[in-house]
Amino acid sequence: MSTRPYLVLALGIVAVSSSAFLITFARQEGVPAVAIAALRLSFASLVLAPIAVTRARDEWRRLAPRDLALAIASGFLLALHFAFWISSLDYTSVMSSIVLVSTNPFFVALASVWLLRESLHRGTVVGILIAVAGGALVALTDLGQGGTESLQGDALAVAGAVTVSGYLVIGRVLRRKLSLVGYIGLVYSTAAIVLLVLAWVMNARLTGYSTKSYALIVLLAAGPQLIGHSAYNWALKYVSATFVTITVLAEPIGATLLAIPILAQVPPPIKLIGGALILVGIYFAARQEAVSSEQSTVNSGQ
């Protein structure tokens, strides 16, 4: 198991990196953001359902009420993550959206202070300050280029980062008790139901779109969801949620580079600097959290 989690995470990053472009193309076909999210999770859940029911039925029966509640909460957070993040792509650039949604290690660190009563280490604080400075540069650049609309997109991306942080933290807890299929079977189906209800409330239709639209959403379900997110959830059993968030930092770099030839979105130098600062800050903070976790494990074993 020494190298397998890292190889699986690498596969997940490659799969998830295509998400923003598939979503952008689906939005260009006229599919609302909430409809894309609902159909993405619904397609993934339908593919997964026969396997999950067959293999994980006994696991679900033995699941404690608290753990079942956590799995439902994880699915709810995943649904909100997609609703927020996909919507952000309507208002801001791919680079801004993906960089800001990748700030989840920052929120994991804050959760450890507020919820777990853990103290922040010096490296974590330094990383947070660097990331905040980078975020300010991105926000100021967006304000100058796109006005308040771009800032709305930035805020939605940050909301996506907050919700996906909770999803990953809960996944780290439950993957110690549930198989991959047992866990994602519950979480993906819960997220699909939440998003379908949200689409109904928002009067976002799910039918009547072009064949190309549905093909793009099927690719979203197959690649970024069933391969990408499932790879992250598989790895959570073997490595910390903090380490997973560190590896996910590779996604915005690749996506930003791909956005230049595919979407003709060339970020200005100041925004590149801001994005780089955010990634550097998150890396410092997440690396400190990972080192602290390893030291705690060593000390507890002595």
Distance between the termini: 23 Å
Q: Indicate the percent of residues in helices.
A: over 70%
List low-pLDDT spans.
none
Measured by DSSP, the beta-strand proportion falls in: under 5%
The average pLDDT score comes to 82
Count the E strands. Answer: 0
Oligomeric status: single chain
Provide key terms for this protein.
302 residues, mainly alpha, 13 helices, globular
Would you kindly provide a brief summary of this structure?
This protein is mainly α and 302 residues long.
Word description of this protein:
With 302 residues, the chain is mostly helical. It has one domain (4-296). Helix content is 83%, strand content 0%. The chain has 13 helices and no strands. The chain has helices at residues 4-17, 19-28, 33-62, 65-88, 94-101, 104-114, 122-146, 148-174, 180-201, 211-235, 241-248, 250-263, 269-301. α2 (19-28) packs antiparallel against α10. The longest helix is centred in the last third of the chain and has 33 residues, at 269-301. The model has no long low-confidence stretch (mean pLDDT 82).
